[in-house]
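Predicting structure from sequence has reshaped protein science. With that in mind, we have picked out one protein's residues alongside their backbone shape tokens:
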Amino acid sequence: MSDRVTMTMEGGVADVRLVRADKMNALDPAMFDAIVAVGEELKTRKGLRAVVLSGEGRAFCAGLDMGSFAQMASGARKAGGDGSVSGIVAREYGIANKAQQVALVWRQIPVPVIAAVHGVAFGGGFQLMLGADMRYVAPDTKMSIMEIKWGLVPDMSGLLLMPDMARTDVMRELTFTGRIFTGAEAQGYGFATRVCDDPRAEALAVAREIASKSPHAIRAAKRLLDLSLEADASTVLIKETEEQMALIGSPNQIESVMANMQKRAPDFADVA
């Protein structure tokens, strides 16, 4: 879709790649725009059943482009210079600005999103990873909540997303120090879903497995899991029942039962 991000789709699985490999997929204004554009397009993509997000080359994403830091030091931000760091007060996407939407848009896609992470995920790259539903990470990946190194705080929705994954003392230590940690450590902290030698291959395999399930049930499950993070117990229990009632006896639910009973691959209708 651009010289920053590409997307192909096969069998209902969208394969989204950051392709600024010569810069370790660092985030410049064009990369911000491209990531958000692809995510927004996928929200309504027909036939979509799962998404894999990964980076080409040596890294998933090295964080904010060094040119942006240089402009901050020169005062360009106050003058409205670099588009990736100026105008951050504007709420262009509901409650979020563009930088925050880079991560949040993946939570807003109605199907599961798996981030396949290797090389490095620093600063904004780490926060981008957090937006996925699941994160498959190579054991030697280097990660950091690196903003403190530059006299900044995480501001790409990381502080909204991290509490769902890690203890507050772990979040605080990593945010206050900017310490680099490995993919193996990230699993212990709660940031990595799975540690694997080939995260992208593993993520694509799981995405294909998800794509083989009823798309209506998968989307309902994501809605419920998202709701469970913010709603009270009564609301979650009621919505759980409502989603189940809508699924029981529906064409794809019947197809799930029949395919299992007949020991064959299911043939599901896509979500309209």
